[in-house]
Design a protein that fits this description.
about 0% strand; about 65% helix; mainly alpha; elongated
Length: about 80
C-alpha cells in the first residue's frame, strides 16, 4: 500500500464516474438466486436447530439431594452450624 494520499481531483472524478453509471435493476435470475439462497439458509438453520435439540439435548444438572437447589443446600448447611 502506498503512503501517498489521493490527488485532490481524484475524489471528484471518481464521484463523477460513479454518478455517470446508469441504474441497472436486478435480473429475474438474480432475484431468484437471492430468494433461493435466503430460503435455503433459513431452512438449513431450522434443520440444524432441530438436530441439535434432538441429538444433543441440554438438561439442567440433577442435584444429589433431590429437589433442593445449591443455594438452599448452602443455606441449610450454614443454619445447622
Amino acid at each position: 500500500m502506498s503512503d501517498r494520499s489521493p490527488e485532490p481531483g481524484t475524489q471528484q472524478s471518481l464521484a463523477e464516474e460513479l454518478a455517470a453509471i446508469p441504474y441497472e435493476p436486478l435480473l429475474p435470475i438474480e432475484k431468484w438466486l437471492i430468494a433461493v439462497s435466503l430460503i435455503l439458509g433459513v431452512a438449513l438453520l431450522g434443520i440444524l436447530s432441530w438436530a441439535s435439540a434432538t441429538y444433543f439435548p441440554v438438561t439442567p444438572p440433577s442435584s444429589a439431594s433431590g429437589s433442593q437447589t445449591p443455594n438452599s443446600q448452602t443455606t441449610a448447611t450454614s443454619t445447622s452450624r
